[in-house]
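Shipment paperwork, digital attachment
Item: protein structure file
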Amino acid sequence: LLFTASVLSKAMAVVLPVVLLLIDYFKGRKFDLKVFLEKIPFFVVSLIFGIVAYRVQSQGAIASLQVFSIIQRIMFASYGLVMYVVKFFAPLKLSTFYPYPTLDKNGLIPVIFYVLPFVIAAAVALVYFKFRKQRFVVFGLLFYFFTVALVLQFISVGSAIMADRYTYVSYIGLLFIV
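Attachment content:
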């Protein structure tokens, strides 16, 4: 009941079932059928509200697939994922509005957007090979990723590429590591 009230008040709450699984991982709980069964009601509520939110937003706030390609959406999401971390450690040049990048004379977006997916891939490889046995690092990074994933513009909503106001819960994962 409280989870439903939470999702009604803030759409970002739909990630709670995933966060509950992450907490189970962090606590070293064995992933058996019971662990998943106890979270089914949360996943059902999240799915229902996620579908409703998508339908409401698709009435004009979501950009069609013709506006941005899948590759561009991945680049925008990578940019947001990295820049939120940068702003966590160095909160400079904060803004209420971060517009999408403008195209150069050749019709291309800035180079940083092409580089950042590879930076993320390298960071994931580093965490996997160097830190995968340290639960607090894996937990913190996955907490950050799953709680910020909804606002990374995989599905382009609105006219801003980033919005700092959506990161206050996500930063808990990074603070956990620090």
